[in-house]
Structure formats: structure tokens, C-alpha cells
Amino acid sequence: MKTLHCRDAGFDCEGVIKATTDEEVLNQAAAHALEVHGVQVTPELAGQLQALIKDEN
């Protein structure tokens, strides 16, 4: 399972995105960022987010 904690991306948010692939995590993160934070995920931001994705059991 891949996870991305919104707080790790610098937001004051308890959101945690979980999916089976990095691509799924990034897609969900982009939707979350836009809906909750009003932030459009650029290719540069996506690269930064990808570095924050962790493998968890």
C-alpha cells in the first residue's frame, strides 16, 4: 500500500491518501488538493509529492 500524508506536503491537514500505485496516490492527491485546499497540482508539485509517497504494510 502506498500512502501520502497531506501534512508531509506542508498543509495543516490530517488527510492521508492510500492507494496501490504512485499514480493512483498522485491522482487522489491532486483531487484532494483542489477540493480541500484550492491548490492546482502542477507537474513540479506532483514531482515533490511523489517524493513524499511511502510504502506501508
Structure in words:
By secondary structure, this protein is an alpha+beta fold. Helices cover 46% and strands 18% of the residues. It is built from two helices and three strands. It has helices spanning 22-37, 43-52; strands spanning 2-5, 16-19, 54-55. Strands 2-1-3 form a three-stranded antiparallel β-sheet, covered by helices on one side. The longest helix is centred in the middle third of the chain and has 16 residues, at 22-37. The protein is globular. The chain starts with a strand and ends with a strand.
Note the topology:
Elements: E1 2-5, E2 16-19, H1 22-37, H2 43-52, E3 54-55
Antiparallel strand pairs: 1-2, 1-3
Q: How does the overall form come out from the CA principal axes?
A: globular
The strand line-up of the biggest sheet is 2-1-3
SS summary, helix count: 2
Summarize the helix and strand pattern as letters: EEHHE
Show unreliable segments: none
Q: Taking all residues together, what is the mean pLDDT?
A: 96
Count of DSSP E strands?
Answer: 3
* % residues in beta strands: 15-25%
Structural class: alpha+beta
Query: Termini separation (Å)?
Result: 6 Å
Specify the biggest β-sheet: 3 strands, antiparallel
**What portion of residues is helical?**
40-55%
Q: What's the alpha carbon Rg, rounded to whole Å?
A: 10 Å
